[in-house]
Structures are given as structure tokens and as C-alpha cells.
Amino acid sequence: MRKEDVFARYSRQIFIEEIGLEGQKKIQAAKVLVIGAGGLGSPVIQYLAAAGVGTLGIADFDEVELHNLNRQVIHHERTVGTSKVKSAVQFVKNLNHQVECIEIEEKINQTNAEYLLRQYDMIIDGSDNFSTRYLVNDTCVKLGKTLVYGSIFGFLGQVAVFNHQGSKNLRDLFPEPPFGEDIPDCDRLGVLGALPGIIGSMMAMQALKLITDLPVNVNQLTLVDTLEWRFQTLDF
Hints:
This protein is an alpha/beta fold and 236 residues long. 39% of the residues lie in helices and 19% in strands. The protein is built from 9 helices and 8 strands. Strands 3-2-1-4-5-6-7-8 form an 8-stranded mixed β-sheet, with helices on both faces. Helix 3 (41-51) crosses helix 9. The termini are far apart. The relative contact order is 0.15.
């Protein structure tokens, strides 16, 4: 992209004093891995691609299903039955062809986690199960990678930045994952589609602030209750 094209496309974020051209250059040089192309991953992928993140890794092993469409807004009816990663990459290409997408059509596990995460500057976890969340957290701690974390359930959401420049991580907040009946299940109990849009957008905002070296709160969990419309932060 020529310099004038960069300005024409990204002028509304370049106009922000704290971003400017230097901040935009940082965004375009960033390499971010998004784990999960579902409810949380959809708005994260959408807004990072729109902002011009240079390299976007997208990891998911699932296919698009009809019931996904109430919240996973980067997918559509024509992609039902196809790979979520391929659907997500096509969405990004249609939105911003300058973004380099890395397709990772596999589950993050003990064997591949360190290899996959090592290649990126920052990790954003939009997974929907505790085993993956704790594996990703532990791998980020081992590799010294900043992790943007989010979770949703019903009307409730959580957002945090873990392991940033020596800050605390998921196990400092929740030392062990829940088991059995303690695990909330969106497939069984549901989620209102706009909630992951809110939480995912907050995750994308934190990621962009981190990329452009703007201050973010660490050692803090943001709780969002969209039913009572309450937002609070807990220090840990």
C-alpha cells in the first residue's frame, strides 16, 4: 500500500493523537494469534483486520454450524458446513486484503502449543473450553507472551490482560479449572449473541492498545453483566 493509501484507509485511527502514523506502523507490523474463530474470535478478527494488523493467525478446528450464526458474525449461511478458519480467512480477505492470514486448522494441544504460539507477538484467547484456556495461559507464561483473555456465559462476560511484562496470569486468579457440573456450557444453557460482540470488541481494543504501547490495566479482571448493565473491575 502506498503511503497515501494507508492514510486514506486508516485516517480515522491515525487522527487519534495517541496513535498517529507511528502507531499505525506498529499495528501493521504486529503478528497476532487469535485462538478460536467463534463468538469471541469473530469480533476480534473483524476489528483487528479492519485496523490493519499485519499478520493474523487464526486457529480453530471446527466447522461452521447454523446455530453459530446468532453470534459468530464473520460467518454466514453459505459457509455452514465449511471450516471456520477458511470462512474467517475469506472474511478478512474481503474486508482488508493487506492483512496476511495464517490458517491453523488444528486444535491447540500439548504437542503443538509452544510451536504455534512462539511465532506471534501476542495471543488472544477466544476458546470455549477450560482445558484450552489453561494450556494457552501456561504456554504464554513459559514463552513470555502477552495474553488477552475473554470469556462469556449467558449475559455475563470477563476480560483481562495476562502475563504482560511480568504481570499475573490466569492461574494467579483461578489456580485450577472447574470440573464436571461446575463448568458453564453455552451449548446447553445459551448465550445472547450481542454479548460476545461486546466482550470480543473489548478484547480487540486491549490488543490494539498493547500493540501501540498505550497503557492497559494488568492484574485486573473486568466483569460485564449485560442483564443488569453493570461493569466492575476486580484487582487480583
